[in-house]
Amino acid sequence: MPPSRQLAPKGNVLVLGNSGVGKSTLINAVIGDDVAKTSFGTSGTTKELSIYESPSVPFRVIDSIGFEPSPIAALRAVHAVRAWSRASAKEGNENTRINVIWFCVDGTAAKLFRETIRNLANAVRMWKSVPIVAAVTKSYSQPDRERNVAMVREAFHGTRIEHNLRAIVPVVAQTYVINDTAFAAPEGVADLIDATMEAMPDGLRGGAHDLQQFKLTRKRMLAQGLIGACVAAGATVGAVPIPIADTLVLSPLELAELNGLARLYGIDKDEDAKQFLDSIVQVGTASVIAHSAISAIKAIPGLNLAASVVNAIVAASIIAALGEGAVAAFEQVYTGRRSMRDLGWVRQLMEEQFGNAYLGKVSAIAEAAQGGGKDMRQMIIDLVKSAFLRREK
């Protein structure tokens, strides 16, 4: 008989929600790619449950089948969890108690039906005292969030699980592209983590330092997704026949990227944020940097690239370097190592970001793009991401 495997002393979060609400995207935003999908203790329930855990994550996530607005589908999910708990206990794993329930709600829905809440209440009868955190996915704007919170409160009001509802957290779990220069940046993931840990029993909350490091890692991953989307947009809007340095096409994209990253790190909420962000923008102004980048590319012997290709490379590279520099600056503030009131260090950081190393990367990208294949735009995007973006798990 194989030796019993003990589960780590961490909490268990059960995820319930209708199909299509974005549960998988939400779980990936919170847990990340460095995750093990476990199967022990789930014999006979693998079609109904997926259990995720990672050494860096302070809780285990138990994802159920689509919790459709019907009692049968809801009970299937609950029966699967019960089976998992019983099987795990037989294997000697005591830590199978459900500590928090994420109830995922589609933020684009016009209404959350009371029947859905009744089905939820029936489904969680065995966990009468377990706190519920409503995660409202696809909540893209401030008016949406206000409406979403009101919608959930109204649906829970007067039900027998109203007292279980501990928090309502609007979330954008990944960058949502609106058009070439407009994005809904990731938001609310750290708030969901905080609400989850606050609802956990005292012994499962972990240390403050470990939790901050975990949230910082998640922010880095989401920031990479936002910067990547902006790089793709930069390669598109930058592919103009006239020198990119003589146009203003990047200005809206630069501001969208910077503002999105600022919201992700909570930088925009501070009263000193405007001057701080202005300092980053001033150093990263595209028209100034583009002249140097284009000159560096033109100095490459034997290089023969169309003007639109050169402009696309320069535009995408500026967006990538600006985004990575901003993330480095925002992390300094987020972790308390630097202050937004002292602007000297952020100017120096951004100047270094666009120094000789930047010009060297741009030149290398241009050389690699020489004689590129059919999809030059995608090649440029891939080359720029590889050269500038950090890879976070």
TrEMBL record:
Keywords: Membrane, Transmembrane, Transmembrane helix. Pfam families: MMR_HSR1. The chain crosses the membrane at residues 221-244, 305-330. Residues 13-138 form the G domain. One of its GO terms (molecular function) is GTP binding. Gene3D superfamilies: P-loop containing nucleotide triphosphate hydrolases. This is GTP-binding protein. It comes from Bifidobacterium anseris.
